[in-house]
Amino acid sequence: MMKFIIYLTIFLTKVQCAFGYIPSLDFILNKTTATTGRQIISIEQDVIFKIDAEQATVRETWLIEGDKNLKLTAHGQGFFKENINLNYLYNAKNKTSVVAKNKLTTPLTTDFFQKLLFVRSAEAFKNHMKELSIPSQIRLSRADGRTAFALGDPSGAKLNPQIWIDQDEFVIRKIRLPSETEIELSDITAISNDLYVAKSQTINWNNMQVFIKVKSVSTKTGATLSNFYPQNLDTPSEISFANKSVLTEAIDQFYKRFR
Fold first, then answer.
1. What is the mean pLDDT of residues 145-149?
2. Which of 7, 114, 198, 210 is the most exposed place for a label (fewest CB within 10 A)?
């Protein structure tokens, strides 16, 4: 009996150490950025807006080459088919679009979270943390019902920007931006050995909520870097609503702030 108690004590001590161990930031980020793919990938997803009894869906197609080059095409579905037609390019810190016949380039804000899901190096990830004012502080926390490494200062009276990374799978489970917008990521699926994608996302901001459901992911796009050149973008973007409502306001806000 005494031997059993000793063995049990040693076992429990090892388990506690395993759960309490926090590796270095470099280790966490190197493991995390190894799950974001190395090829140009395409993602088709539905962005679903629900306000009381009203609902709208926008079909998005993304072409993604890491966190530096992204391309978005978005079209309204159903009733909003003619109201939403967007074509955006994101290069490093800039966004390019065509409005009427004018090509516009504007700086990205810290609300553009899409690039955070596809960072491919630890150094780039650290740069994004600096842009979001997230210090290199790590603690154990919970996100999506799982144990996670929480990067950043814990929240007190103010909701501080933070990023939650799964302790076992090293994928991002939750993001809180400086604007206090929260992105929750779930149903994370392995597309290949080095690419994991969250097929369900929930974005919460200013008492509004949007759901994203990924429909398909492909690593065989046939695309090249020229697909991301601003000079090759010539399709105009338009979003307009004849009748304003809380629902159309949510759609308008989402594409102005987060896209």
1. 97
2. 7
| Number of neighbouring beta carbons within 10 Å of residue 190 | 12
In the DSSP assignment, the letter for residue 158 is: S
DSSP H helical ranges for 76-205: 122-131
What percent of the chain is predicted at pLDDT more than 90?
89
Q: Is 196 exposed, middle or buried (0-12, 13-18, 19+ CB in 10 A)?
A: buried
* Averaged confidence pLDDT in the chain: 93
Pick from 247, 112, 92, 86: which is nearest to 183 by CA? Answer: 112
| Strand, helix or coil for residue 94 | strand
Within 10 A of 229 (CB to CB), how many other CB atoms are there? Answer: 13
Q: How far apart are CA 6 and CA 8, in angstroms?
A: 5
- What is the spatial distance between Cα 29 and Cα 167, in angstroms, rounded to a whole number? 11
Q: Round to whole Å and give the CA distance between 11 and 175.
A: 35
In our burial notation (b when 16+ CB lie closer than 10 A, e otherwise), range 36-72 reads: bbeebbbbebebebebeeeebbbbbebbbbbbbbbbb
What is Dmax (Cα atoms) for the chain? 83
Query: Residue holding tokens 């699926």?
Result: 189
